[in-house]
Structure formats: C-alpha cells, structure tokens
Write a structure and sequence with these properties.
2 domains, alpha+beta, 4 helices, two-stranded antiparallel sheet, about 15% strand
C-alpha cells in the first residue's frame, strides 16, 4: 500500500488552517521507504514556503514523543523502566556521577530524579 501524499497534504493544510498553525513538515518511514513533505509557510511575514528542511523550534513537545516511544518499547518488553538509563545509553552522564549511574527511565519520565 502506498501513502496517498496528495490526500494527506490536503488534510494537513485543512488542519493548519483550522488551528491557525503556519506550517508542518511530515515524514513517514514505512517498510524502509521515507516519504516526506511540507505544507504552509515557514514565516508568516515573508510567506516563504516551508520545506522538509525547515527548522522548527519544538520546545517541550519532544518530551511527549520520547515518552510515547519509550513506553511502546516497554510494552513490547524491549526495555525496563527501572533499569539504569546507562543500560540503554552507556554514555549517559549528568553533573552528579552517582545520579548518572543510578537514574532510571522511570525517574526521568516522572521528573523525580533531582537533575
């Protein structure tokens, strides 16, 4: 099944207009094939079109996506919330060496690690 880019592009354009969002860049990786496109403008003053190379300031949105992706891995049994982060990211370090060694994904997700 191929991705219907014109249909998705049209729907994204509708949603951008409905919610007053200037643009969006969409990327879908399916069966090893990348499909990407952008809709809208990167700057409302200049009306310069957005592209797949447009840089977006994503702020705290990445926290939600990272948590979702990690919890999917938990659900699949591939990772454990209570193992040290270094189990999965051996180079993980913060200013406190003890915290670096002991902090778990659960601590990070609950903002209960003190870092």
């Amino acid at each position: 099944m191929t991705i219907d880019v014109p249909r998705i592009r049209a729907r994204v354009a509708e949603l951008l207009a409905e919610y007053g969002i200037p643009s969006a860049a969409i990327g879908v990786l399916r069966d090893g094939e990348l499909t990407e496109f952008a809709v809208g403008v990167r700057c409302v003053e200049t009306r310069e079109p957005a592209t797949t190379d447009t840089v977006y300031q994503c702020g705290s949105m990445t926290k939600t996506w990272t948590a979702l992706a990690f919890m999917q891995l938990v659900d699949e049994g591939k990772v454990d919330l209570d193992e040290p982060v270094r189990t999965y990211l051996p180079g993980f370090t913060v200013a406190d060496p003890e915290a670096s060694a002991k902090v778990t994904p659960r601590h990070l997700l609950y903002h209960a690690n003190g870092i």
